[in-house]
Amino acid sequence: MGARMIEEGEGVRAARAAKRRFLRTAGLSLLGAVGIGVVMILGKTAPGHITPAAAVIAVVAMAILLPVAIYFNVRATDEHDQMIGLHANSFGLYVYFFVQWAWLVLWGGGLVPAPNGLAICLVTALATLGRYFQLKHLR
Fold first, then answer.
1. What pLDDT score does 124 carry?
2. Cα–Cα distance list, 25 to 43, 75, 81, 111 (Å)
3. Cα 72 to the chain's mean position, in Å?
4. Short-list 60, 64, 76, CA closest to 26
5. Which of 22, 85, 91, 139 could form a disulfide with 76, with the two C-beta atoms 3.0–4.6 Å apart?
6. Is the pLDDT of residue 134 over 70?
7. Cβ–Cβ under 8 Å, residues 29 and 73
8. Which is it for the CA torsion 110, 116, 122, 128, positive or negative?
């Protein structure tokens, strides 16, 4: 007995290809984020711990790679996933504005230390990812 071959429609193949592109882009983005995180955690926190040339190269590379990653991500996702991403990123922006403002006000009142940009960035990223996960998987 041979295996039965089931014909797949063009839509199924297109959806699988889009999912592969999305997973590849997400994987590369995650790999880049982990790499940046490791460098930030292992690196010194004082200014001047890298050379000025390395700092400029890193900023230029991020300015080029971020739009490229966004372009491929948008190409690999459908309208529904794009709306989930838009909603999650809007939520993250609101969280950023609130946390930044609240920390500045509390710092001005002498209740907390000076605002920490990395901490605010991590809170914003976690809130955005949490909202994305909620919209994508828990609805």
1. 93
2. 27, 10, 14, 42
3. 14
4. 76
5. 22
6. yes
7. yes
8. positive
DSSP letter assigned to residue 8: -
Query: How many other CB atoms are found less than 10 A from the CB of residue 56?
Result: 10
pLDDT for the residue 25? 73
**According to DSSP H, which parts of the chain are helical?**
10-42, 52-76, 79-108, 117-137
CA-nearest of 75, 91, 76, 100 to 129 is 91
Distance between CA atoms of 99 and 123, rounded to whole angstroms?
A: 8
Q: Which residue has the tokens 């990123």?
A: 89
pTM assigned to the model: 0.65
Question: From the centroid of its chain, how far is CA 88?
Answer: 11
Domain boundaries defined on the chain: 8-77, 78-139
